[in-house]
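Notebook, p. 212. Picked up where the previous page left off. The plan for this session was modest: take the two constructs that came back from the sequencing core last week, fold each one, and keep the raw output in the notebook itself so nobody has to go hunting through shared drives later. Recording the first one now, exactly as returned: residue sequence, then the structure token string.
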Amino acid sequence: MTLANVTSNSGTHGWVFVIGMPLLCMAEQVEGAILQRDGSTYAVMVRSPAGLVTPELLERVAAIARKYRISTVKITSGQRLDLIGVRREDLDAVFADLGPDAVRRTGPCVRYVRSCPGIRHCKNGTQDSLALALSLEAKYRELPFPAKLKIGISGCPRCCGDSRTRDIGIMGSKSGWTVLFGGNSGTRPRFGDVLATDLTTEEVHDLIARLLEYFRAHAKPKERTSRFMERITLEGLRSDLLILIPYIPLEK
């Protein structure tokens, strides 16, 4: 099997795998759609901030899946709905039907803010994780950064929002919020470093803004926060952050 670059009759270019005869063409990449393993269909994600969905959104997603004969609808690890198996010729129509609920950016950006039910619903909750998640989602949704960022918020130390293994983790307790940075759950897992504890919600917003500003200015392209922290070290980050936010007591 070989890979060849070919030009179509219309003048467009693309790559094909040559396996004897005939040529098997790979589908094009489309912003906001993720090419699937079969090489011809796509996945389109539906926005559900903090994992919350309304009955109206569920009904619309179900109608779209039936209308375009989409075989699979999956809940992702980021608490979003994924329409899997969308044909290329249906992509524009699916995006149009979803409107602002479609996730259109899949590059290096804030991918999602996930949350547990928090104090609003959970008997163990100590902080309002849903409110914080919704405010952060609205503020940072799909903003570009050197690498993708995932945020996990938990309303208590049981950490059901996977706060310890997200790029930015926020975990509640009776005395306030704990902020972690540099977590990862991939092939090289890493717990995030604890930067500050017992913060108010306003202090969390300030610290996150400074953290993201610092990360954007100093990270290398495609460098996730876990590798970024291994390179600059926790001590280096603390030293620089103390200059930016001396009024927030960072963890020693």
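Okay, moving on. Second construct, recorded in the same format:
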Amino acid sequence: MKDQADTQTAERFPAPRRRGRPSTGQAKSAAERMRAYRARKRAGEMRPQLKPVMTANVTKNAADPNGQEQTVAQLRKQLARVEHERDGALAKAKKEKRDVMNKASPMTDPVENLILEHLKALREELRDFKTQTVADLSLIKLRLTSLES
């Protein structure tokens, strides 16, 4: 053990390193850090980069310099077309279901069992189409609201 007053003798074991990041001696105070942050912010270094919500072919003309009205009209036409397809598929499924239900004894004949299996397949296709249509409609509505705002 080394005497506390002994300054001439070298250490037998070096002192263990301290935990954490080594100090540079040039630490800034909180006020200095905020001042630098505000200066960077004023200079525009920290402006967030916004990504576009949607992409659409926009043509410019004199009446509508941003082309938004034409894009909105295109999206509304697309929305109407998808809704029309959905309504047609729903009507077709309802008609087929009504036809199957009007049969006298649906489970007695193998042909009628085949029809029921076919109806189940059509119902699954309709369900898949409906989920896809709902997703498409929500995307179109999102695009419309982003254009109108």
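Notes on construct two before I forget. The chain has three helices and no strands.
Flagging for discussion at group meeting.
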